[in-house]
Amino acid sequence: MKGLIWGIAIVLAAIWSLVAWAGHGLIGFAGRLLADNADLAPVDPEGVVLISEWTDVLAGFGQGTVAVIWGIGLLLIVGLAALAAKIAAPSRQPAPPAYGGRPDDYRGGPVVDHRADEARPAAPPRGRPDLLAEARRLSERGDRQR
User: Fold this and answer.
1) Within a 10 A sphere around the Cβ of 54, how many other Cβ atoms?
2) Of 5, 40, 47, 62, which residue is the least packed, with the fewest Cβ within 10 Å?
3) What is the dihedral of CA 3, 9, 15, 17, to 10 degrees?
4) Predicted local distance difference test score (pLDDT) of residue 116
């Protein structure tokens, strides 16, 4: 189910990217078209330059706005896909087996053999040495030196 959700999200992101790319191109084309043909406006030459520059600026802002809206839309698509994937497939603990493996064990659950623990030798104690044994060793050494 998660794969299906992420697959749909990838397709939607691709379609959204194509729409944004087309909008970006259309705004750029319209801005260039207006800027290049500003001399057709019935104004003096300074007005033609002003119209041309402003259409370039507005086209740039329009293309930047399309890029920001594309990013927000892509984040929205990915976020909704992640939320849907989390809701669609909640993590579950596997159910314990109904039969433990031995004919006399009908309670379920894994059968644990504790004999292996008894056969293992005990590990030596860790941490501080026995203070009493240390004191005896020091007192014996002191008796020998006298």
Assistant:
1) 14
2) 40
3) -120
4) 60
Cα–Cα distance measured from residue 59 to residue 24, given in angstroms and rounded to the nearest whole number: 9
Q: Is 9 helix (H, G, I), strand (E, B) or coil?
A: helix
Exposure of 61 in the CB half-sphere (CA atoms within 13 A) = 6
Q: Among 54-68, 80-94, 125-139, which stretch is predicted with the lowest mean pLDDT?
A: 125-139
Rounded distance between C-alpha atoms, residue 134 and residue 95, angstroms: 54
- Among 6, 2, 7, smallest CA distance to 88 is for 2
Report whether 17 contacts 74 (CB < 8 A).
Answer: yes
Q: pTM of whole model > 0.90?
A: no
From residue 47, alpha-carbon distances to 34, 37, 54, 55, 139 in Å are 13, 12, 10, 12, 109
pLDDT in tens, 35-66: 888 778 788 888 888 888 888 888 889 989 99
Instruction: Give me 51's structure tokens.
Output: 């119209």
